[in-house]
Amino acid sequence: MNEVTKKKKSEISTNVIDFSSQAGVGFENVGAQEMAIPFLKIASSQTPEVKKSNAKFVEGLEQGHVFNSVTKEFYGDILVVPCAFRPRGVEWMPLGEGTGAPLKIYDPKDIPPLTRGADGEDHYMINGALSPSYIVLTAEYFVLRLNDDGTFERCQIIMQKTQYKKSRYWNTMMMNQKVKSAGGQMITLPMFANVYKMATVQEQNKKNDWWGWNITLEKSVNDLKNPKYIFEEAKIFHDLVSSGQIDPAPEARDDGGDVSQDVTPASASQQVLG
After folding, report:
1. FRET partner for 160 with CA separation of 20 to 30 A, picked from 94, 210, 215, 218?
2. 144 Cβ partners below 8 Å, 6+ apart?
3. In the beta sheet, which residues pair with residue 204?
4. Cα–Cα distance measured from residue 4 to residue 16, given in angstroms and rounded to the nearest whole number
5. Are 69 and 75 in contact (CB under 8 A)?
6. Both ends of the chain: CA-CA distance in Å?
7. Domain segments of the chain: what residues?
């Protein structure tokens, strides 16, 4: 080893800062409500991030990729630990009208009734008047997306329209995960006891095609390298959502490329009732 190499190594070792004594400093006033929860979305032909002419274009992002709405990172299949589920009715103005932001968020049981209007179409009765808006039943999942190195990222996944049916299947799959307790009783495992693989598939009907989710049970959290850590972090995330400390508003209109049907008040109500 020559003298130059010795000197460089010495400089590196003495100039490295040990941050442990200042861990977290500066973030004292940053709580759960002061952080953005990224959405995990499926890129489609309608996604601005895949269009080179769009200011939001992300190099390398292709249709069918899953991407992070905040960091713009993208992936193929992803592994997630679901932590909390929340169904909502999201009220929108018709496409091309309004700001593109949701008008109101409903608990599904509080969605107003449909009434036939003079135009012969069904409309929601909102504030005593027939409204041109429509309400889409939306499934919100709060998940930990797992990385290969054992770390994770808190994220949100939205399912609506054709994907809302997928959410029902996923909920059923999760609730069917049972074990026998020490007392001999069969109990339902917590939502965050298992890891699920989320892949994307292209779907179609007679008129259109779009990208959707394919969800399968991957393994137990116990099979991870750091099961206790992930399980505890999942429970913390669940508690933050359940207590309302994390309550992100829906983003501006984004159908995720799912153009399987034109949404009208009548068709939206079929999602709620069906």
Report:
1. 218
2. 80, 81, 83, 152, 153, 154, 155, 192, 230, 233, 234, 237
3. 209
4. 19
5. no
6. 74
7. 36-86+140-273
Contact 166, 212 (CB under 8 A): yes
pLDDT at position 273 is: 36
* Residue 205, token pair as written in the block: 């009907």
Angle at 207 between CA 204 and CA 213, to 5 degrees: 25
Tokens (6 digits) for 236: 């913390």
Outline where 137-199 has alpha helix (H).
Answer: 162-175
| H or E stretch covering 13 | helix 3-15
E runs forming strands in 10-98: 40-42, 66-68, 74-75, 78-92
User: Is 133 within 8 Å of 91 (Cβ atoms)?
Assistant: yes
* Residue found under tokens 């069969």: 186
What is residue 254's predicted lDDT score, i.e. its pLDDT? Answer: 53
Query: Count of alpha carbons within 13 Å of 48, Cβ hemisphere only?
Result: 8
Q: Count how many Cα atoms sit within 13 Å of the Cα of residue 212 in the half-sphere of its side chain.
A: 21
Q: Which pTM was predicted? A: 0.80
pLDDT of 53-70, one tens digit each?
Answer: 899 988 989 999 999 999
Give, for 209, the enclosing helix (H) or strand (E). strand 209-220
Q: What percent of the chain has pLDDT over 90?
A: 46
**Strand, coil or helix: what is 216?**
strand
CA distance 49 to 59: 8
